[in-house]
Amino acid sequence: MKKRVLFVCLGNICRSPAAEGVFRTYVEREGLADEIECASAGTSPYHIGEPADHRMQMHAEKRGYELDSIARAFNSKTDFDNFDFVIGMDDQNVWDLRAKARNDKDRKKIYKITDFAVDMDYDAVPDPYYGGATGFELALDILEDACDGLLQQLKEIP
Ligand code: 4NP
Fold this sequence. Notes:
It is built from 6 helices and 4 strands. By secondary structure, the chain is α/β, with parallel strands linked by helices. It has a single domain (about 5-155), classed as Rossmann fold, CATH 3.40.50. Strands 2-1-3-4 form a 4-stranded parallel sheet. Helix 1 packs across helix 6 and helix 2 (about 55-60) crosses helix 6 (about 135-155). It is globular, with a radius of gyration of 14 Å. The mean pLDDT is about 95. 4-nitrophenyl phosphate (4NP) binds near residues 12, 15, 46, 127 and 129.
């Protein structure tokens, strides 16, 4: 059965679009695009309709990732049903998602991206929005490591 992953951050313009771009690149690289699908959303409505932040697009592009998502808000009426893994970028995202969950089945789908980390020792992807270039690079470093771990874990699920 197809596995469906939704990456979630606050604005859906920095971290979760980057997670989507990195993860999709890995999935396609391994020829698994027919088996694993991903998308992203934000817990806030602040940036609905906007493309990914141009700074994140630029840093991602330098590593070979194209970020083409358009920001949308997480929808608890449809997203918990349409996705198998709903993955926040930090504790606040996870708390917000848990508050939106309708039942235990929804709650069991909620993860934090760093739960899947392989080498990097971070317990969240720090929000790079108000900082400089190093924040975007760090976010991408953490995301590359965790997306690698996530893909390895999904490959083990029949
Ligand atoms: P993101 O970053 O949650 O990674 O998309 C942010 C984008 C915008 C804002 C905060 C974080 N904001 O407050 O507008």
